[in-house]
Amino acid sequence: MKKIVTAFLTMCILCGLAVPAAAKSKAPALRYGSDGKFRILCFADAHQTRHDQPKMIAFMGEAIDYAKPDLVVFLGDNVYGDACETTETELAAITKLLAPVVERGISFAFVWGNHDPEYNDGTGDSRPALMEMYQSFPGCLGRADDPATPGASSYYLPVFSSKDGAKMGLNLWFFDTGRGTVEQSQLDWYKAASKRLQAENGGVPVPSLAFQHIIVPEINEFFLAQWLPIPDFTGLSGLVMEGSGFSPTSDSGQLDFWARRGDIYACVFGHSHNNYFTAPIRGIDLVQISQATWDGSYGSDVTGARRSSPLTKAIPAIIAKN
Questions:
Q1: In this model, does residue 308 exceed pLDDT 80?
Q2: pTM (2 decimals)?
Q3: β-strand pairing of 168-175 with 155-160
Q4: Which candidate, 197, 122, 125, places its Cα nearest to that of 159?
Q5: CATH 3.40.50.2300 assigned to 3-321
Q6: What pLDDT does residue 122 have?
Q7: Any idea where the domains of the chain sit in the sequence?
Q8: Cα 102–107–110 angle (5° rounding)?
Q9: Is the dihedral of CA 147, 151, 153, 157 positive or negative?
């Protein structure tokens, strides 16, 4: 991979969600196009409830038609609130949410956010049941790779070269942040898998992108360094419409793991509904995107106001050239 470009295409709403790899749907392997490009469109914090969100679903469809992605990623908090009450309402909400990608026959991946596990199937951890629901849809690429946490949305997806179809040109990591941060088991899983992929790649780390719901806590240090005592926006590309309290206060050491491994060039996050920016920290671009939900989050009066200006919303399309 010669270059990774993070481009923000300004439109009327921003998005959130991510999708995993599925054995049941038998989605085809991801490959670069004949033009040497692979396009990913991300949606975050859709907050699909029991009720329809026709404006959001229409927006998602228009965004997909405009960006023409090879993969759509949902970055967590996909389903929320009263839709999580029963298996029937949960599945109905997922069906509504995934309609734009399913109808277009596009592969999708995802991660869980802090609200997704609110669905309670009576087992104490509903993530395995959620994973089965998503995997029942065509095009699903999500799975649970971390053996220590069944159902957790931590996995990776290789993107193969268009030239010979066998060489991995790019790897996509997906991390389950649960209700705050990743667990040590996930870091151990990532480290082992990353080393294995490097060995299979002739000893060279595979260039990678990562996706997860909640941003790493180092963003708090970045905000303090940039804003105090005098705000300096030159180190941050994008817009900040709310503070940095959306990130966890505990540090799992995830960013240090990434930096030491040297394979991840950028990670895309949701969770912060009103911010979208790119902040380079320790050689890794932290890409924050805003919410996709139109009227399903914390009251339609607040959310509607957030949706009103095209200058405060963006669709991030991460374009990787093979």
A1: no
A2: 0.83
A3: antiparallel
A4: 197
A5: no
A6: 80
A7: 3-321
A8: 95
A9: positive
